[in-house]
């Protein structure tokens, strides 16, 4: 497949065997003793344990001063400091005050180039402004039996992109912008099926059944994800199918047959519920695919991986979790403009808008008289809590 998508190799890492990589890393370092630091309430004793040394209070105070992070600040520093690189809003990182002249740093050279570019408002500083950081839930760890040991488990971050319309170079189909909908943090010991379960997509929540004749009964239809449960991940030449339900189908079969005729592949298949994240070998930064509901395809990118540290939430049941997500706008009723849309109509003879969004009250009052449908239209319930993207 590198012949087709080799372009992305330029921006991605080499293929990494996650389990092997972190085992070698763990063997090299003394990270196991992070567990000691966490369990040791006395911070000084914990630090000395990791350093494998013993010093008196006076020497410890001197060492603390020498090693203080404050010493990394220089007079006239260009950047504002931020406290937490993982959870904070990072816009402050790029807010330049003054660039020192005689400092030969590549970062400053690039920064000068970037400032010299035509100003595009809302580009640089908005990188994270459209995303919401989700604070980990506060769990009272002493109540939990299944706690992880810091340094013993890996945390992998996966970016999930919104489905988009692929543009054929000869077609004039409108191409939607590709953007991340959420970033998931998942443990190495968890499976791809658990990753699938936390990916939220409107097409899973939809009820793709026309119910204008009897809308009240129609709204109680099962959601698409309860009916069409098949889906797969495509990662490193392998299709990982969801076979948790015996009726699920191998959606990759038709793709593999198509590829065979074009001498693409070979491809392997596996079941996503039997494959753990740490058993994967992946390229970081390389786009892979999650497909569900037959045609809904999302790009997904492994963006980061690290060992769990003492400051992370150590409760296994808290993962996988949404780490960051894109803020999205609610579709409002196009009649009253006050309430969120609960219904969508198409081919409505009495309306200029196709489709048209309605709240429940406006839907019934505009389209029905004494419960009887007026004129022709098709109606579909909007999924509960729908957050349709513009
Ligand atoms: Zn989807
Ligand atoms: Zn309304």
UniProtKB/TrEMBL annotation:
Keyword ATP-binding: no
Subcellular localization: Nucleus
Gene Ontology annotations of biological process type: snRNA transcription by RNA polymerase II; snRNA transcription by RNA polymerase III
InterPro entries per UniProt: snRNA-activating_su3 (IPR022042), Znf_LIM (IPR001781)
Every LIM zinc-binding domain range: 333-366
UniProt keyword list: DNA-binding, LIM domain, Metal-binding, Nucleus, Transcription, Transcription regulation, Zinc
Entry annotated with the keyword Magnesium: no
GO cellular component, one term: snRNA-activating protein complex
Functional summary from the UniProt entry: Part of the SNAPc complex required for the transcription of both RNA polymerase II and III small-nuclear RNA genes. Binds to the proximal sequence element (PSE), a non-TATA-box basal promoter element common to these 2 types of genes. Recruits TBP and BRF2 to the U6 snRNA TATA box.
Protein name per Swiss-Prot or TrEMBL: snRNA-activating protein complex subunit 3
Organism name: Neodiprion lecontei
Source taxonomy: Eukaryota, Metazoa, Ecdysozoa, Arthropoda, Hexapoda
């Amino acid at each position: 497949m590198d012949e087709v998508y080799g372009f992305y190799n330029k921006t991605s890492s080499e293929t990494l065997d996650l389990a092997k990589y972190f085992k070698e890393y763990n063997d090299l370092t003394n990270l196991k003793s992070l567990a000691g630091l966490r369990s040791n309430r006395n911070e000084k004793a914990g630090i000395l344990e990791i350093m494998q040394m013993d010093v008196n209070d006076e020497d410890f105070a001197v060492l603390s001063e020498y090693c203080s992070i404050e010493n990394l600040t220089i007079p006239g520093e260009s950047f504002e400091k931020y406290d937490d690189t993982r959870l904070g809003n990072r816009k402050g990182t790029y807010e330049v005050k003054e660039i020192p002249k005689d400092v030969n740093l590549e970062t400053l050279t690039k920064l000068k180039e970037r400032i010299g570019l035509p100003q595009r408002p809302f580009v640089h500083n908005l990188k994270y402004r459209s995303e919401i950081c989700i604070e980990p839930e506060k769990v009272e760890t002493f109540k939990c039996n299944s706690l992880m040991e810091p340094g013993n488990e890996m945390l992998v971050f996966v970016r999930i992109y919104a489905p988009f319309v692929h543009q054929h170079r000869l077609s004039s189909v409108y191409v939607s912008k590709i953007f991340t909908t959420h970033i998931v943090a998942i443990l190495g010991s968890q499976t791809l099926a658990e990753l699938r379960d936390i990916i939220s997509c409107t097409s899973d929540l939809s009820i793709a059944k026309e119910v204008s004749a009897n809308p009240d009964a129609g709204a109680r239809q099962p959601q698409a994800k309860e009916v069409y449960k098949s889906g797969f991940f495509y990662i490193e030449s392998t299709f990982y199918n969801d076979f948790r339900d015996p009726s699920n189908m191998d959606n990759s079969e038709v793709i593999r047959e198509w590829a065979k005729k074009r001498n693409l592949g070979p491809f392997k298949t596996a079941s996503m519920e039997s494959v753990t994240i740490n058993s994967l070998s992946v390229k970081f930064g390389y786009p892979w695919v999650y497909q569900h509901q037959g045609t809904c395809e999302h790009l997904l990118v492994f963006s980061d991986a690290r060992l769990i540290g003492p400051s992370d939430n150590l409760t296994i049941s808290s993962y996988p979790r949404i780490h960051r997500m894109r803020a999205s706008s609610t579709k409002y009723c196009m009649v009253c403009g006050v309430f969120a849309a609960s219904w969508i109509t198409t081919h409505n003879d009495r309306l200029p808008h196709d489709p048209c969004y309605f709240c429940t009250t406006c839907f019934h009052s505009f389209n029905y008289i004494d419960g009887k449908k007026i004129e022709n239209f098709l109606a579909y319930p909007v999924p509960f809590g729908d957050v349709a993207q513009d």
